[in-house]
Model the fold of this input.
Amino acid sequence: MSGALRTDAPYLRLTPGAFTLIELILVMTVLTIAISIAAPALANFFHARTLDSEARRLLALTRHGQSRAVSEGLPMELWFDSPTGAYGLEAEPSYEPNDAKAVSFTLDNEMQLEVVSVNPASSGNTTGIATSTGLGSGPASRSNHPNLPAIRFLPDGTLSETSPQTLRLTGRDGSSIWLVLSRNHLSYEIRSRKQ
Done:
């Protein structure tokens, strides 16, 4: 009976084996080394992304302010409070003392916002660094933030002559992103360095 199955032969049973303690320790050591090598590079990546996203949010706010000024027919003011790291957009006070659509943002503690240069023709400041003398307020404007530099959007979509020409966002590592008035003086654009 060579072709018949043998019923008395033991079957080989494959049981799943467990990892030994040494294998687990070795895997954990390799993972720890890989994470410790990758962590600084990932931290720098996320900090750079934070600076970039903050610059894009500020640029989007300039476009939103310009759009609101045109659609509502009211001057809008994008104000900057560098010492506290805050900025916001609101309509200039008119019939209503408070703007229901006003927004304000606060920078991360590791970032700085600086108004670097203003239009020298419209202010007596020739140093290029903004002073707190109401740069965002022209003679016919009213403001809830009279002593802060501001970008002022007029109802026709143009920018006030007193609006800053350059803003600088600086991150923790010293890298900067610039918001610069465009050549046609109608909007702002992001640059990785001042030109």
